[in-house]
Amino acid sequence: MKVQGQGVPKPPQPSPFGAGITYRGRDHVAQVMCLIGMSSDTKMRKWYSKLSEVNADLNHGYNIRFNNHHELVDALKEVNTIIQKAANLR
Question: d(Cα 83, Cα 70) in Å, to the nearest integer?
């Protein structure tokens, strides 16, 4: 930032990324771009590998719960039909 007159800072210029991104937003964009560039680093690769393993574990657990839920719903539907048929026999 350049200084005008009596020490008043000059306002930041419009963002090259668009008018909606503020000065702070541009800083975050620069940080994200830097982090993307660092992703080729071996430490980041190890981190991504661990993250992928955790994600796979979470997906596996979700699929188990999903299947158990659907089996329970099917069993409850079957119990409900049995109860309805028994009620009609009276």
Answer: 20
